[in-house]
């Protein structure tokens, strides 16, 4: 069941759009902000509010890689795997990060602190390789910059 706060955020978004279906991504992101991910139960609740089928919402959620369909860690680190980042050594960044946190790409640390996910592009190709933790972008990554970034999260 959607919380009062989630429902209020979604209703505010609905007022900004010409129809309820247009709010699908914003509504799923609102649920994700509160719960960390979007469960099947949440999709059913959103389906009723938005008048969109669960299958259509799931299709959007699984296409849009910033919507998490399973539980994630307290912080989500998105590791850019674009061509630009790859050319500038993102594979070394990814390998260091995975080793440092003892989890594979796509995994969550044992303490639930971080989930590491690949992302197609973070749009900062001129500062490759890059990653984003929560809403903070980290550019020109090397092992030292990764360590600096990780210390900022509890």
From TrEMBL:
Cofactor(s) for this UniProt protein: [2Fe-2S] cluster
Residues that, per the record, bind [2Fe-2S] cluster: 80, 85, 121, 125
Enzyme's top EC category: oxidoreductase
Cofactor note: Binds 1 [2Fe-2S] cluster.
EC number: 1.6.5.11
Transmembrane segments: none
GO molecular function: 2 iron, 2 sulfur cluster binding; metal ion binding; NADH dehydrogenase activity
A Pfam family reported for this protein in Swiss-Prot or TrEMBL: 2Fe-2S_thioredx
Domain of life: Bacteria
Keyword list, A-Z: 2Fe-2S, Iron, Iron-sulfur, Metal-binding, Oxidoreductase
The family this protein is said to belong to: Belongs to the complex I 24 kDa subunit family.
Protein name (Swiss-Prot/TrEMBL): NADH-quinone oxidoreductase subunit NuoE
Source species of the chain: Alloacidobacterium dinghuense
């Amino acid at each position: 069941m959607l919380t009062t706060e989630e429902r209020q955020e979604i209703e505010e978004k609905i007022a900004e759009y010409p129809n309820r279906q247009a709010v699908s991504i914003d509504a799923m992101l609102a649920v994700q902000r509160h719960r960390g991910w979007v469960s099947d139960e949440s999709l059913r609740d959103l389906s009723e509010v938005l008048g969109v089928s669960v299958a259509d919402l799931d299709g959007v959620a699984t296409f849009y890689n910033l919507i998490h369909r399973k539980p994630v860690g307290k912080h989500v680190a998105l590791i850019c795997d674009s061509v630009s980042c790859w050319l500038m050594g993102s594979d070394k960044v990814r390998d260091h990060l995975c080793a440092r946190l003892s989890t594979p790409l796509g995994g969550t640390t044992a303490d639930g602190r971080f989930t590491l996910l690949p992302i197609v592009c973070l749009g900062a190709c001129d500062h490759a390789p890059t990653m984003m933790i929560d809403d903070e972008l980290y550019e020109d990554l090397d092992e030292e910059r990764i360590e600096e970034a990780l210390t900022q999260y509890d």
